[in-house]
Amino acid sequence: MAEGSVSLEEVKTSFQKFAVHGDTKATGKEMNGKNFAKLCKDCNITDGKNVTTTDVDIVFSKVKAKSVRVITFEQFSQALTELAPKRFKGKNKEESLQQLYGLIVGKEPANIGVTKAAKAGAVDRLTDTSKYTGSHKERFDDTGKGKGKAGREDIPDTSGYVSAYKGSGTYEDKVKEA
Hints:
By secondary structure, the chain is mainly alpha-helical. The protein folds into two domains: 8-104, EF-hand (Recoverin, domain 1); 120-177, no CATH class. The protein has nine helices and two strands. The protein has a two-stranded antiparallel sheet.
């Protein structure tokens, strides 16, 4: 990449993308500390050695106004000017700032490691009637269709002529045997 090839407009585009990340009410003109830290992490400005997350937080606090919790693009540029010499040691201020801009340009907030919505596998597994056991199994027929009330309650057999007579239609057989 040639020196001085990165324009502030390109950096501003990335700034706006990160500024609105995760905030539905954000306009893209101001960035909060969380998103500034995310930009630094996603664009590899924080490297764990020369620039740590603590450095990023300190610089953010330094450039923002006392009573607010966000920074403008101008303050963002100031913050980068402070971080650049730390990130690229041994380079002059202008060179290190250009390299820092190079890391930021064209980047968008990464959604790597963001929790995805769970697949419906658990629901399918829990509603598979073929895996039911015990009393739950009796509530469904062979096709997996529920039996309704018959599956939930013991319905007494009232087919005999005396209540609680179990064996309707067996009287004739008993009489013939005798």
